Amino acid sequence: MHHRWLLLLACFWVLFMLMVASKLITLTMRIPEGYGMRQGSLTILPELEKMTVTEARKFQIESQRLELLRSVCRNGSFGNLSHSTISKFVLDRIFVSDKHKILFCQTPKVGNTQWKKVLIVLNGAFSSIEDIPENVVHDHDKNGLPRLSSYSVPDVQERLNSYFKFLIVRDPFERLISAYKDKFLHNPRFEPWYKHNIAPVIIRKYRKDRTETRGGLQFQDFVRYLGDPNHKFLDLQFGDHIIHWVTYVELCAPCEINYNVIGHHETLEEDAPYILKEAGIDTLVSYPAIPPGITKYNQSKVEYYFSKVSKRDIKRLYDRFDGDFKLFGYKEPTFLFH
Ligand SMILES: *[C@@H]1O[C@H](CO)[C@@H](O)[C@H](O)[C@H]1NC(C)=O
Ligand SMILES: *[C@@H]1O[C@H](CO)[C@@H](O)[C@H](O)[C@H]1NC(C)=O
Ligand SMILES: *[C@@H]1O[C@H](CO)[C@@H](O)[C@H](O)[C@H]1NC(C)=O
């Protein structure tokens, strides 16, 4: 009888010691809990001790953007969560750095020229951003920045599966205003086809007041064209020039491609260094200085440009760009609807 009690006591003692030992092992290994994040195919375990408060907050914001994107993709009709259906049009939009295993999807009017310069330097064609002549940035025969579409099907798959992938977005309506100003009002790179070939075709089909023949394309003509559910007919005629105003969904297939980081133009000051760090290139190159104030969302500007557009046309435009607003967390511009 006495022996049985002793045995039981010994058992408890062993159990207790095991518990203490396992606790000690856990403590010495210092596993940061709850911060394992699955992102695409790679697991990111940031070392919390080394993260500053700002970095941790940034990491959280980025995780939320990706979570939102995935949940809207699963829910909606903005594409398939599979790699199988990526069109040549999308592959043409994606630039490759094999040296650093990076894919960048170009979304025009969102500061992409600067990102292209960063990648051109990384690929080695020029030694610094200042050395790249302006006309070479967009000349893909000379700048050593290949498009993903120039690879074989298995090579495309391999890169989509394993490279670091990112894109930059901004408020969809501000982007359209910027495209309109850039291509039809200022045209800084002197691309005459916008004024001479594209504008007259849009005016002929979409100008409301046909007695008004003076001047070039007006913003309301442009909006009416973009919001027309049958816009595809003209898009085909305009060819690749439409990249300046088609949706992010069409440009970058964000529901099919598992992007690692979504940068926002509005927070580019923090997003640019974050992207460089996540891509593992922050010690090699830096993003060019951002002129103060240019990234901030300007509601008065949006109100100003849309003030002459009818509510019906704004609604139709919104319906077309609905995916771009929802996938990337941009608020519906309700101030334009009443
Ligand atoms: C999913 O879609 C439905 C119907 O289109 C919509 O009402 C709902 O808000 C969507 N949910 C998310 C998370 O986007
Ligand atoms: C999803 O993919 C399937 C097959 O690839 C296709 O038939 C279907 O139309 C796609 N759905 C959407 C919403 O794109
Ligand atoms: C916003 O846009 C308006 C109209 O284009 C402009 O006058 C104003 O200076 C802008 N505000 C800021 C803060 O950039």
Number of strands: 6
Name the ligand types.
2-acetamido-2-deoxy-beta-D-glucopyranose
Distance between the termini: 88 Å
Mean pLDDT: 85
**Topology as a string of helices (H) and strands (E):** HEEHHEEHHHEHHHHHEHHH
Question: Major β-sheet, in short?
Answer: 4 strands, mixed
Broad structural category: alpha/beta
Low-confidence stretches: 24-43
Strand percent estimate? 5-15%
Task: Explain this structure.
This protein has 338 residues and is an alpha/beta fold. The protein has a domain at 173-246 and 302-321. Helix content is 50%, strand content 7%. A four-stranded mixed β-sheet has the order 3-4-5-6, with helices on both faces. Bound molecules: 2-acetamido-2-deoxy-beta-D-glucopyranose (3 copies). One 2-acetamido-2-deoxy-beta-D-glucopyranose binds at residues 293, 298, 300-301, 304.
Brief characterization of the structure:
With 338 residues, this protein is of the alpha/beta class. The chain has helices at residues 2-29, 53-75, 88-93, 112-123, 134-137, 153-162, 172-186, 192-206, 219-227, 232-238, 248-252, 268-278, 299-306, 311-327; strands at residues 37-39, 42-44, 94-97, 102-105, 164-169, 261-264. One 2-acetamido-2-deoxy-beta-D-glucopyranose binds next to helix 13.
